[in-house]
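Comment thread on ticket #2218

A.B. wrote:
> Attaching the input chain for the structure job we discussed in standup.
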Amino acid sequence: MTCLRFILPLVLFTATWFAAAQAEQSGAQLEIAQELLSKAEAAENGGMYMEALSDYRAASRVAPTQADIFLRMGLLKGESGDFEGAQREFAHAIEISPSLAEAHYNLGLALLGGAKQVPSWREALEQFQVALKVRPNYPEASNMAGVCLLESGDAASAADLFRKSIQAKPNAAGMHFNLGRALEALGKLDDALAEYGTAARERKPYPEAEMAIGNMLYGKGDLSVASEHFKAALAANPEVQEAHYKLAKVLRGEGKIREAQIELKLASALIQAKSDTVMSTHLSNESLNRAKEGDILAGIQLLRKALWLDPANAIANYNLGLLLADAGNLEAATLQLRKAISLTPMRPEFYVSLAAICEKAGDTQ
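C.D. wrote:
> Ran it. Output below, let me know if you need it in another format.
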């Protein structure tokens, strides 16, 4: 699947809503809303996302019928990982303006991003299709609709949509990569290999495309050329476990036993690291269940185990901060929440919780 990237409207945000608002808002209201939007955009451009969100929210109260303001809030929440909040904002924008293609498109992305387990491919597809109905020439929506169809098993229809996207954006590496995936699923291997090659040329580095090329060449028995693509994938991302494993097999076949053993050890280390991350996430989730049952101390113990396995688990750091605050250890809680923010700075709820705990502790700095 392609990375989720929230897309801004194609026209200048303030100009879009301002013209439509003139017939509905008083001059004083327009002036206040325009000032708030300018402040919000300046804060957003400066990386001050909480301030931006606050100003956008204030502007929405002054101009509550302007869908673009809710769209902008949804974009901010989506980029910060608050997919449920983003879904609400996009849905509100659609309620105000059902023909706002960007709101439908980004709601589709938020539905995929917010999935707890299996992504909501069909539900997201409906939003991408509405976006395309409103704006037929919308390559990002065509691409994501294709991803949904491909993941749902309809590779032929997906390939048609990817081709449509590429017609509008011929240099979009991700769209070529997705077309390669669809063609490979259809058994058109030479065509798929050509699309993966285009993707790798258009975006450097592109480890996923290099791995796809390497795997196809490996399957054809062209091991020496395949190994070069595995190496290219690892140069871009040393944590591609499959690349280490496949490269080890090629090296062993070439009689380079020592080099092969090194690659196998690296692959094994990555498997262990992934296992630690999975277990850390499991313990973090279980800690919340314990806390809901009233056993806060047991929850704290589980979170400490989670962080021993994966110290960079931002959610575990955040949850530990909340439980420490519930246990009355506000100083330790603030330290833990600051750690979570340092790991994942674009999560608004982290800042909100930290502010609340700091206020409770009497620290307003």
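A.B. wrote:
> Thanks. Noting for the ticket: The two ends are 43 Å apart (CA to CA).
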